[in-house]
Amino acid sequence: MEDKLLPYAEETIQFLNRLNKKIYFLTNSSTRTNEEVAEHLNFLSIPAESSDIITPVSLISSYFRTYSEVPRVMVIAGDSVKSELAKAKIILTNNPDEITHVLVGLDKEFSYKKLNSAAEAVRKGAQLIGLNPDPFCPMKNGVIPDAGTLIKAIESASNIKAKNIIGKPSKFPADYIFSKTDLAGEKCLMIGDRLDTDILFGSNAGMNTALVLTGVTSAEEAENTNITPHRIYEDLSQLMKELSLNTKSIT
């Protein structure tokens, strides 16, 4: 997560707040808790509460309540993921004969030993679950491999595809939001800079989608894809201008 806001980000949040629009911040980061993300946003002058944040980490307990009665999980991820599982009283194990799920996020200590154990567990019937499919994570001085790269390695070593992804573009984050609110997809606008996660997530959830060309996706990439956003903007100032003309359709 960067320490510098994108152009017009603060103004856009202020604009939406003046319109009394409900704002959720969705991130595929698997290295921070909701509280840590909210604290970082406040540091950047973006007002946010932990309840406004949706991360794959925050959805872990809800995911396992929905899809598994008694999970026994091997974790390939950071401490925030392990802490969330501990809070949910979910059993952690590295024994391939006991593992029911291999949960994969960004793990800076990923090793051959972890790869071998995870692949063995998956071959024995454990479900491979990804926190997010992103192949890389943008950093100040470039990028580092993210969960998607590790998931691909385990898929290759086990010859079995991942069962589910918890974060974007999965519809699971949207279902979680809809279950907690009276929102509906057609009354929501998903704003993001990445086609294969942000925009595809919004489309999967039946939302309006806006691609902003100030991040991962270039104008050329946006023209040569089968993932089609409803609108494409050079920056958030263009989005604000259009929303100011038509705000009633977006909750």
Automatic annotation (TrEMBL):
InterPro entries per record: HAD-like_sf, HAD-SF_hydro_IIA, HAD_sf
Example GO molecular function: hydrolase activity
Entries under Pfam families matching the protein: Hydrolase_6 (PF13344), Hydrolase_like (PF13242)
Alphabetic keyword roster: Hydrolase
PANTHER family found in the cross-reference section: 4-NITROPHENYLPHOSPHATASE-RELATED, HALOACID DEHALOGENASE-LIKE HYDROLASE DOMAIN-CONTAINING PROTEIN 2
Protein name (record): HAD superfamily hydrolase (TIGR01450 family)
Lineage per the UniProt record: Bacteria, Bacillati, Bacillota, Bacilli, Bacillales
